[in-house]
Amino acid sequence: MVRTVPGRTDRVVVVGAGLAGLSAALRLRGAGREVTVVERGSGPGGRAGRIEERGYALDTGPSVFTAPELVADTLAAVGEKLEDRVPMVPLETTYRAQFADGSHLDVHADPDAFAAEVEALCGPGEATALRGYLADLAELYRLQLSTFIDRNLDTPLDLLGPQLVQLARRGGFGRLSRHVERHFTDERLRRLFSFQALYAGVSPYRAIAAYAVIAQLDIGAGVWHPVGGIAAVPRAMAAAAADAGVTLRYDAGVRELELSGSRVTGVLLDDGDRLPADAVVVTVDRPETLVPGFRRLRRPVYSPSCVAVHVGVRSELPGQAHHTISFGEAWREVFAELTRDGRPMTDPSLLVSMPSRTDRSLAPEGGQVLSIVAPTPNLDRHSGGNPDLDWTTLGPRYRDEVLAVMEARGWTGLTGAIEVEHLDTPQTWAAQGMAAGTPFALAHTFGQTGPFRTPTLPRRGPENVVLAGSSVQPGVGVPMVVISGRLAAERITG
Ligand SMILES: Cc1cc2nc3c(=O)[nH]c(=O)nc-3n(C[C@H](O)[C@H](O)[C@H](O)COP(=O)(O)OP(=O)(O)OC[C@H]3O[C@@H](n4cnc5c(N)ncnc54)[C@H](O)[C@@H]3O)c2cc1C
């Protein structure tokens, strides 16, 4: 039996209007609770942020949007349809993978088109391997979703069952790098199916093969573009919540949770207001800063961080894809630099997104918006990061370097065409209170995944405070935090 919050839970306060908080709020409202969301920022979204300037709309958080059905399910909790709030466009080309040898591979959502592309570039043997691998990924994901991801886990014993055995039989606990090497001989395909380990904050040389499933979310099941950009998603969730009767308070930072015995009875805001509460959902990055008695994991390992350069450019940049993974020549070294040596990548691999390629509402006529995300070490030495990197001076230099790499890899004329620009570095995330200066929270090492990651109802701390967001189960990224909101709500509603 999953543990739940005992006693009255009529009035719930949700701290944070990011995707996790909004997901929890919609579920709770759907189950008839009186819900107030308090957010210190001036609008919804949290890490899924938005800057609008001179006609350019820059999404400053996630760029790769997967599993829209999870948001659809969340909206359905209050009787709403996703398509009425945010139309979703499936991308025909999930990614363009650009390699250092000058070749590129378009990853198509249609498996036949993808296999044909692989056959043309890597030969018929690899195309056959691809078909087998994609089928395997889908099955691995199905096994993991029900065991590890889509449920509240209180102890490792909750995992025991036939599905865990099947996962072990399929090699899910070996190394991801070896798993991929066994299936593919072409180095380019090996990279394409292992770079996603970085989304989980681990090197493919250390990650267990079970994380291969992250490639099911993007390459297997496809990537979508929410019309109006990714920020349209939290905005739609907030609007649906408000229409369903949730109270949303912005510019309302929470200072303290008021404890009475083993329960929190009120939420104190920075402006002195007090909101009475029967239960509280906390979605902040570091729950230990707010929840009395909560203990974080011992010796936590955090994911690498990133430098994100967001630009609006007065240039068409013809021929570029919506999402490009631009691989450098270096690979093993990249992970050593990011997760062991605490050094920025010397030969960077970058994720470049140009959503205005699909959605012209995001840029003025003749312009484009781009997000360039370069993974960097975080600021925590124990996690292989580097607290001595001074991003105040390093940030602008690194931005210049990244743009020079982009020009050299085919985005000719990009730098000179920039009209608006925004730069985030590990220092930005640290200033926002995120642990280790990373927006990607605790890494998905084996010891910080599934039942070993902080549960949505911690064992220590007040009995009526539940957690959601990327620091807790199931983990990091839009699909996971949306699920975490549901899991948190279920701790309250039963
Ligand atoms: C550059 C970047 C790229 C990314 N790329 C992807 C991607 O491509 N795909 C993907 O799936 N994911 C991606 N992610 C990760 C994804 O954005 C996050 O995992 C997710 O948005 C986290 O949501 P959350 O609700 O848990 O946290 P948050 O969005 O951080 O929400 C927490 C909220 O709590 C508020 N808050 C904090 N303290 C208080 C307080 N004391 N009082 C009141 N409110 C408070 C914060 O202001 C914030 O709004 C990316 C993130 C970044 C930054």
Structure commentary:
With 494 residues, this protein is an alpha/beta fold. The chain has three domains: 11-53 and 61-89 and 227-300 and 442-493, FAD/NAD(P)-binding domain (3-Layer(bba) Sandwich), CATH 3.50.50.60; 109-222, no CATH class; 302-441. Helices cover 31% and strands 19% of the residues. The chain has 14 helices and 19 strands. It has helices at 19-30, 68-76, 82-85, 111-122, 124-149, 162-169, 176-183, 187-192, 214-220, 232-243, 332-341, 391-408, 426-431, 478-493; strands at residues 11-15, 34-38, 50-53, 56-59, 88-90, 93-98, 104-108, 224-226, 247-249, 254-260, 263-269, 274-276, 279-282, 305-313, 323-326, 350-353, 368-376, 418-424, 465-467. The protein has a seven-stranded mixed β-sheet. It has a five-stranded parallel β-sheet with strand order 9-2-1-13-19, covered by helices on one side. The longest helix is centred in the N-terminal third of the chain and has 26 residues, at 124-149. The termini are close together. The relative contact order is 0.19. The protein binds flavin-adenine dinucleotide. Flavin-adenine dinucleotide binds at residues 15-21, 38-41, 46-48, 61-64, 253-254, 283-285, 306, 308, 373, 439, 469-470, 476-478, 481. The site of flavin-adenine dinucleotide (FAD) has 33 residues, from α1, β14 and α14.
